[in-house]
Design goal:
By secondary structure, the chain is α/β, with parallel strands linked by helices. It has 18 helices and 17 strands. The radius of gyration is 27 Å and the shape is globular. The N terminus is likely disordered. The protein binds adenosine-5'-triphosphate. The site of adenosine-5'-triphosphate has 17 residues, from strand 6, helix 6 and helix 14.
Length: 432
Amino acid sequence: MADNDGSPQLSELVSFLQTLPEPHILCDRDYRIIAANEAYRANWPDRQEVVGRKCYEVSHRYAVPCDQAGEFCPLQRSLRSGQRERVLHLHHTPQGESFENIELSPIRDASGEIVYYIEKLEPLPGARSQAHAQGLIGRSPAFVRMMEMVARVAPSDAAVLLQGESGTGKELVAGAIHRISKRADQPFVAVDCSGLPETLFESELFGHERGAFTGATARKTGLVEAAAGGTLFLDEVGDIPLSIQVKLLRLLETGTYRRVGSPELRKAEIRIVSATHRPLAEMVEAGSFRQDLFYRLNIFPIFLPPLRERGDDVLLLAEALLARVAGGRKLTLSAAAQAWLVGYAYPGNVRELRNLLERACLLCDGDEIQREHLPAGENAAFSRSTVKFTEKPAPDLRTLARSFAGNRKALAAELGLSERTLYRRLKAAGLS
Ligand SMILES: Nc1ncnc2c1ncn2[C@@H]1O[C@H](COP(=O)(O)OP(=O)(O)OP(=O)(O)O)[C@@H](O)[C@H]1O
């Protein structure tokens, strides 16, 4: 694929691109698309011409390269590293916004200088930025960073530990990891590790033989066996009793387990994804979670951002979830309802947003959800300041209270609280 002088020949590169089954484009160092293969063009209505345009303009509708628009630019990265680079980008495609795995490979001339880039674009299954039947929704930087980790680890067999507050979507992300993995056609089995008594838990997980314990009238297959070849999702893994933790560790280390009541060692070929909202590292310190198991589960940690750190995702999610919970009704959100939703702090994260909308649907007789269909109480400023409040408790309030001495109204305004709430807070802090 080179001229006599050793530099890559454009016509040969273009022919090579055509042989590739996945969508590919060829760009120069100046972001200009100089060729697009058939698989790429097939996605565009009327085979709209993209050659000659800039990649950031076609894929992002940006007027400037991605890195100047606050995103990672694989081309810039590759120029710096001189290597192939991969990123996950949210792209405008003819089918709507979609997460795409981008892989950029530099092509050099005879002198070793990078002259072109081959860019492969593969849609990430199971995630959409917009409303989508059951997929993960989001486009905020915190969400995209999390999805980038998901896209990186999913194709491997590495154990993943999902950490995040309740309702942030850990189970949904576990499902996405499975769907993106090469195990997608095999079972995805979710185990809720909380709330099961120890003996029952062991038999649920590993199965039991007939007569293994009172009431075991028949042999039972466990969830580990049911997940064979696929993914076992251990939800609330921090709740696994210590005695079962040893058995889980053996499963992870040797790929073997025993049914309850059987001496026979059985083989399991599974990928483990686990999730917790509890501080596992602290539990290790406290001795309630085995350190060796923690390391085995935590090969690739992914942190799920709380909704309050996901900015504009709130409205994106609200619209999509509204469509899901509205039972066929076409409902919209009034400006006041939107403002309230954007300002609220969501201690219960996406699950709470979904529940709020479900309740609002039931209260709303018309086709627009109003402020009064959402919970009574203070607005945006209140909720956001509550979060700050819990992060920085009494000392700040004490300082502040002194500098606003006697003027409760001004202090309330400064904190974004109603005077009544401020009064309650001051009283609780012994400052009223
Ligand atoms: N990014 C998202 N896009 C769409 N829906 C979401 C998203 N994240 C969460 N949800 C929805 O929010 C609800 C809670 O999600 P999920 O059960 O996955 O959270 P979780 O973190 O596992 O919660 P818990 O820790 O309480 O088990 C579900 O209805 C899920 O569909």
